[in-house]
Amino acid sequence: MNINIYKDKQKMGAEAARCAADLLQHAITIRGEANMILATGASQFEMLSSLVSKDVDWSKVTVFHLDEYIGLPASHPASFRKYLKERFAGQVAGLRKFHYVNGEIDPRVECQRLGKLIGSLTIDVACIGIGENGHLAFNDPPADFETEEPYIIVDLDPACRQQQVGEGWFPSLLDVPQQAISMSIRQIMKSTAIVCTVPDARKAVAVKKAIEDPVTNLVPASIMQTHPRCWIFMDEPAAEKLKR
User: Fold this and answer.
1) Cβ distance 6 to 233 under 8 Å?
2) For residue 21, which of 96, 105, 127, 103 has the smallest C-alpha distance?
3) Residue 136: helix, strand or coil by DSSP?
């Protein structure tokens, strides 16, 4: 793991975006195209705000959406499709393709559709975060480290759902969907590079467990310790419990 700590979120986000943009442009130079994964949530605000301004040939970039709630309309304020259209896809010119996760159709059919699209591709960079409960995407603990399916249906645990309320996406726990479609752990880990952005003190315990404790599916993000090219960008509050 390449660990980077910054005094403020803006610098953190800018450096994470620079890293992701460099990886994308390198892939375009080598292969003539690039594929990436994008996450959502409050942890990605600063990174995405900076990424859309980077000098990347977006006409050669295909993006895959990491996860989405099952049954939530795309018009809902908490919809990840809405989030990514407003904060990324609508901000870059001539994007080659964006494969959104549609949580409003049969989730099994949608998992199969997305799996066929991503299964044969090289993903050059996955831009992700870490949940307060240590999850990656919506793979809550205990996460499935074994499935080879690229996208799966998952149950959201109370801690994950409460985080969504705490970030202001939903008015109460009862309003948060109980299931989602998520990219699987193994599919995320197939990415050539991972750029993980984690701000805020509320993530400090999860960060410590993910970086310094043993790898376990009870802290799904700890699996990143095994990835050969993983960059983690965090602000000082998120890093406050690290020993090193």
Assistant:
1) yes
2) 127
3) strand
Give the DSSP H/E element, type plus range, for residue 97: strand 97-99
> Where would I find the H helices in 123-184?
158-166
Q: Report whether 51 contacts 167 (CB < 8 A).
A: no
pLDDT digits (tens, 9 = 90+) for 96-136: 999 999 999 999 999 999 999 999 899 999 999 999 999 99
Cβ burial of 11 (10 Å; 0-12, 13-18, 19+) is middle
**Looking up tokens 């990424």, which residue turns up?**
51
Q: What is the pTM of this model?
A: 0.95
> Residues 18-51: pLDDT tens digits?
999 999 999 999 999 999 999 999 999 999 999 9
pLDDT at res. 2: 95
Single-letter residue type at 18:
R
User: What is the C-alpha separation between 58 and 34, in angstroms, rounded?
Assistant: 9
What letter does residue 219 receive in the DSSP assignment?
A: B
Domains of the chain: 2-235 (3.40.50.1360)
Taking Cα atoms as reference points, which of 34, 42, 105, 22 lies closest to residue 235?
Answer: 42
Q: In the predicted model, what is the mean pLDDT of residues 7-19?
A: 97
Quick one: 93 exposed, middle or buried, by C-beta within 10 A (0-12, 13-18, 19+)?
A: exposed
